[in-house]
Amino acid sequence: MTDLASQLSLDHGGKILLAVLDGIGDLPIDDFGGLTPLEKAETPNLDKLTKTGALGQQLPVGRGITPGSGPGHLALFGYDPVKFLVGRGALAALGIGFELKHGDLAARINFCTLDKDGVILDRRAGRIPTELCEELVLSLKKITIPEVEVFVEPVKEHRACVIFRAPALSDAVHDTDPGLVGEKPLSVVSTGAGAEYAVKIVKEFIKQASAILKDKKPANGLLLRGFALHEDFPSLSELYKLNPAAVALYPMYRGVASLAGMEQFESNPADLTGEVQAAKNALKSGKDFVFFHHKYTDSSGEDGDHNRKVAEIEKFDKIIPSLMECGFDVICVTGDHSTPCPMKLHSWHPVPVLIHGGPQRTGWSDRYTEREAAAGALGTFHGYELMSLLLAAAGRLAKFGA
Amino acid sequence: MTDLASQLSLDHGGKILLAVLDGIGDLPIDDFGGLTPLEKAETPNLDKLTKTGALGQQLPVGRGITPGSGPGHLALFGYDPVKFLVGRGALAALGIGFELKHGDLAARINFCTLDKDGVILDRRAGRIPTELCEELVLSLKKITIPEVEVFVEPVKEHRACVIFRAPALSDAVHDTDPGLVGEKPLSVVSTGAGAEYAVKIVKEFIKQASAILKDKKPANGLLLRGFALHEDFPSLSELYKLNPAAVALYPMYRGVASLAGMEQFESNPADLTGEVQAAKNALKSGKDFVFFHHKYTDSSGEDGDHNRKVAEIEKFDKIIPSLMECGFDVICVTGDHSTPCPMKLHSWHPVPVLIHGGPQRTGWSDRYTEREAAAGALGTFHGYELMSLLLAAAGRLAKFGA
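ok -> C-alpha cells follow
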C-alpha cells in the first residue's frame, strides 16, 4: 500500500501537520470512574476538530504487538515498521545528532562497574553523571583500529554509543551485556553468517577500551548492546514528494525523524509554545509536512500518573488554535502507541487518530477518545496506512488507474 | 505478524485458557424474534466476563471463506491456515491417535457397497457398525507393498484411514470417491507433478484391498479421499514458548491439537465437568496454555436445532465459575467458525471473541453476542492474530523495537 501511495504521490497539494501525542492511547482508569485520560480531559479545541474532522484508530505494528518508539514513529511516517527495522544502537546515535552513514555499525555503550575478577557489580556504574560519561568518552576517543573509523559519543549518565565506519560490516553481533549482575561481560560472538570482520573489530575496540578504563572509578568497564547496521531509508521526499520538517524536543524523536529525511526546526522556548513557533517557521521556509512531537503524554503514562496525563492532553488542546493559524491544510492528531497509565508501559492497544481537513465524512464523532475512534469514519487501519490518508486529504495523491 | 509474535514471545507470563465453543457464531433465528442463539441464551457468567473483559470478532480464514474444523482451529492456535495446510486424511489419522511422521501420506477410507459391475450403490455401505469396520480393517492389514509401510486404521462406522510411509511421497493424488452413487470409483490419478510413485502405491493398495473385500457384505468396496502428506508443524512450544495442553472429547480436535504439539488431558467423566477437571489437571502439571473444546454448540447448529444450541451455550455458561477457579490469568471464549442453525452448515460469518484478563479496554460491551462483538474494543481481526492478543494479555510478548 505504501508503495502504491509512493507511486501516486504528487509534488504539490496541501500542507500537512502530523501531531504525535506520544503514548496517547490508554485504558479505563478506576479513579476516573472508568474513563480514559482522553475521555476525562477537557478538550474544547480537540472536540471542535473532531466534529469537523474524522476519527479512526491505528495499529502501530499489529494486533497484540507493543511498539517501541522507533517502529511506532516510522509507521506514522509511512514506513512498514516490520520491513524498515532500526536498531537501538542506530537510534541512539541518531538521537544525539550523530550523522550515520549508510553501512555504519552502531552500538550502545553502558559504562559499568566490574570487580577485580571482571564480574559485573553494577551494569550502570551507579548512573554516573553525564560529565563523567563525557570524560570517559574523551579517553576512548584515543582508540584506533586500522582501516576503521571509530566514533565514540556520550549520550546521558552511564550511556554512550560507538559507531564503526568501514566497508562490509554486519550487525550480526551479539550483545556483550549479559543483562544481569554477577556475571562477566559476554565475549563478542556473531549471531549470523558474514559477521567475522565486525566481530574482530568489536573485539579490538573492547580490548583497547578495557585497558583504558580498568583503573577508573566507578566505571571501570563497558557493555555493548543493540548492534545495528545503518542502512539509508528512502526519505519522505523520495517516497512521497514531501518537503518534511520535524519539531521535537527529545533526541530519540529527532533521530527517527532524521531517518525519514526530515529537517529539524528548533523550539524556543523548549516547550509547546516554542514548538508551535517552530512549526510556523517550518511552513514559512517552504516545508509542506511537519511532524510535531509532544512527549509528556507518554512520560506521564509511564509514570502511571493519569492526572498529569490529563493535564498534558489539556495543554496540547490549548495550543490547537495557534497551530490552526499556522496555515496547515490537514491536521492529524494521533500517537505512536498507547502508554496506559495502569500499565506504566507502552502497550499494543490501538491508537486513536483524528484527521481534520480535506474531504472527510464529518459529523460522525464528537470527541477524540479511544471509544469514539473505534467507531469513527476512518475505521481501524495499520499505522503505515495513515500517510496515504493524509496525502489523500491534502490532495497529494493521484488516481490509481484510469 | 505471527512471525513477529513468535520472535517476541517470552518463556514466562500468565496462563491462558482458550475455550472454543465449536461453531458458536450464528444468524438471527425467526423463532427467537430475530435473536441469535447467543442473544437468546441466559448467560449470566459470560455476561460478567464480558463486562470486565473485551469483545471483538475474528475471521477464521478470511471474508466469505467457510473454514473446515482443521483451519478454524489452526487459526486459533496462531497458525495462518492458508500457509499451514492439513488434509482431511492427515486429520483423520491424527484424530484416532495415529502418530503421523513427517512425510507420511494419509487418506480417508469409506467402505462402500458396489454392484456386480463395480458401480457404487451406497457410498457408506449402510453406515456399517464400527465393529464390522474394525473387522474389515483387520483383513486389510494383510496388504503388503514392497518398500512401503502401510497402516490401515478404523475410525467409526464406515470410515477408516490408510497411511503410507515411504520416502518421497506426494499428496497430489485425486480422490477415488466420485461423491455420488451410480458411478464407479474413480481410478487413481495424480493432480500434479511428482506424484507418480504415490499413485503407483495407492493403485497397488486398492488392487489388493478390492480383492480382499470383493465378497464381503454389505461393504465390498472402498473409496479413498483427502490424500494429505503430513509435514511437521512447528509446535506452540517452538513458536510461542508455550507449554500447551488440549482438553477435547472428539478425535478430530485432539488430532489438530496434537499437530500444534499439545499434550492431551483426559476428561472424566467425558463431559464439560470432566473437561474442567482436565483443565485443572493440566495447569497443575505445569501447562500454561489450555485449549478447551466444547463440541455440541456445533452439532446442534449442524442439526438446525436452535433450542439445543441455546441449551449448549447455557451449559457452558454454568461451568465458567469453575473454569475461573482453575487459576487462568487470561480466559478467551470464541469458536473455530460459525455454524448457523438456519444453514445447518459451517459458514464464513465472523466469530465473536471474548478476552478476559490482562489490560483491556473494559466497559465497552455487556453481552457476548455477534452484534456486540462486532462493535467491541478488540475490533475485527484474523483468527491467526488472536494468539498475539492472548500472549499480549498474558504479558508473554516483548516490545518490538526500541
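Chain A touches chain B through 37 residues (CB under 8 Å).
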